[in-house]
Design a protein that fits this description.
The chain has 256 residues and is mainly alpha-helical. Helices cover 46% and strands 9% of the residues. Strand 2 and strand 3 form a beta hairpin.
């Protein structure tokens, strides 16, 4: 086995461990089997070989996540009904992981050239759940200054977290934000850790920059973001879809 194969397999297994810890049994299983396929020089290695060339990828470029997102994108486009039947994001079920792996491997084999091309894209999840942590800091700054906020973000991706004030946050003791928002965060805070929801805040300006901005108002941008969500985490996908609705209503410039 080439050193590059071993390194790529290790990256897939490392990500499988994170998927296990973060509640994605489907991706855990597929990545474990994918690692075995890489070691056996199967179709997974065929598509990953160029990116793993020289063993230089130590995880910083999120090769495993880019791989899963590339396959997920093809599923979301409706071109792989067999694998879609195992992806909850496409209306499927994850009850038979062995069948999911066979379908996954077949998609990788049949769409190898396209997946190799998609792998060149940067990994950008733009996870809107991060706003549940950011909101507390923003409200404290608003209280300390009594001024409108200028929200500027480096590495903003699609700028979804720049629209944090258009989301609804709820704890056991209070809530903040638009009650009718399509993005609803419920019971995200434990004990006394909830942000100071009694504080009002207004936004004077919001903008960001990114090496490779995504436009969430385009079909390609929405598909890129949705494909990076793990296929069996439908709650995260639902939040993202809500944030994409907000993005159409609240313009934000993200400069390259």
């Amino acid at each position: 086995m080439q050193p590059e194969q071993r390194a790529a397999a290790e990256l897939l297994r490392e990500q499988a461990g994170w998927c296990r810890q973060l509640g994605s049994p489907l991706y855990e299983a597929l990545l474990e089997r994918g690692a075995e396929d890489v070691e056996g020089a199967g179709p997974c290695w065929d598509v990953l070989a160029d990116e793993a060339s020289g063993g230089s990828d130590k995880g910083g470029s999120a090769l495993a996540l880019r791989f899963m997102a590339s396959v997920h994108r093809i599923v979301l486009e409706g071109r792989t009904p067999s694998l879609a039947s195992h992806y909850p994001s496409a209306g499927g079920h994850t009850d038979v992981v062995a069948d999911a792996w066979r379908s996954f491997r077949q998609v990788v084999e049949e769409h190898g050239g396209e997946i190799r091309s998609l792998l060149r894209r940067r990994c950008q999840t733009n996870e809107v759940g991060r706003s549940t942590a950011l909101v507390g800091g923003f409200l404290l700054v608003a209280a300390a200054t009594s001024l409108p906020l200028r929200i500027l973000e480096i590495g903003a991706s699609a700028g979804l977290n720049l629209r944090w004030d258009r989301y609804r946050y709820r704890s056991r003791d209070g809530a903040w934000g638009d009650p009718a928002s399509p993005v609803q965060f419920d019971d995200m805070y434990e004990g006394d850790a909830a942000p100071p929801f009694e504080i009002p805040a207004t936004i004077a300006e919001r903008s960001g920059c990114d090496l490779d901005p995504i436009d969430p108002t385009t079909e390609d941008g929405r598909l890129s973001l949705r494909s990076s969500v793990w296929a069996d985490q439908v709650g995260r996908l639902r939040l993202l879809d809500g944030a994409l609705r907000v993005a159409r209503e609240v313009p934000v410039q993200v400069e390259r």
